[in-house]
Amino acid sequence: MIGNKFGNNSNRGKRKTVFAVLCVGILCIAALSLWRIGSVAPSGEPIICIDAGHGGSDVGATYEGRYEKDDNLRLALAVGEILEENGIKVVYTRTKDEFVSLEDRAKFANKKYATYFVSLHRNSADTDVSGVEIWIRSDSHNDEAKLAAKILDKIDEVGFGKNRGVKRGYQSNPNADYVVNKSTDMPSCLIEMGFITTARDNELFDKNFDEYARAVAEGIMAGIEPKE
Ligand SMILES: [Zn+2]
């Protein structure tokens, strides 16, 4: 059927309206998709739990008025800040000078579904020894060993006396584990950032502080890159 002049015009008008509505609809869907992509957490939302060792009444190792708990917290906040600047979600077992039990630290990380747990400490010894070492569980699987190796490589690039390697278990007992390594559900490691009891290591810790913080953060980020 052929419509009259007005009818044709009217149909054309309707088609135009339908076309315009479709265009707006498509634009809305496109905008909404972009918005949704933009709101997705970065890289599938890895969450890094940074653990500043000791705190509050537990001062950790000491040396000439210097407390391990303070060095650990300072480094933890610096590492976390770099990770956050890179769009990575960070949770902290403590952000101030307070006591948190070892079990509570692990429970916190488990509750947060952290991807990795990284505990920061300073070493101590009766002798004049130097360097960085990283501890992982005695029965550790590959993910932990790789994470620890990546962090240690980055620290080694800056240089921190002797590279004392990635070690399994617990100092003085290879079959035991640090609580924070044993009780965490996710890959974890405990970094001993030089000896607080060795003046030279403290000098290095202070002098290269920013570079060490960056090295630890970069090591962690290398660990959460998608696996090939
Ligand atoms: Zn410690």
Description:
With 228 residues, the chain is an alpha/beta fold. It is built from 7 helices and 8 strands, in the order H-E-E-E-H-E-H-E-E-H-E-H-E-H-H. The structure holds zinc ion (ZN). Zinc ion binds at residues 53-54, 60, 68, 121.
Q: Outline, from the CA principal axes?
A: elongated
Query: Can you list the strand order of the major beta sheet?
Result: 4-1-5-8-6-7
Span from first to last CA? 64 Å
Helix content: 40-55%
The averaged pLDDT comes out at 86
Largest sheet: 6 strands, mixed
The Cα radius of gyration reads: 27 Å
Question: TL;DR?
Answer:
This protein has helices at residues 5-39, 68-85, 102-111, 142-158, 179-182, 199-207, 209-224, and strands at residues 47-52, 62-63, 66-67, 89-92, 116-123, 132-136, 163-168, 188-195. With 228 residues, the protein is α/β, with parallel strands linked by helices. The radius of gyration is 27 Å and the shape is elongated.
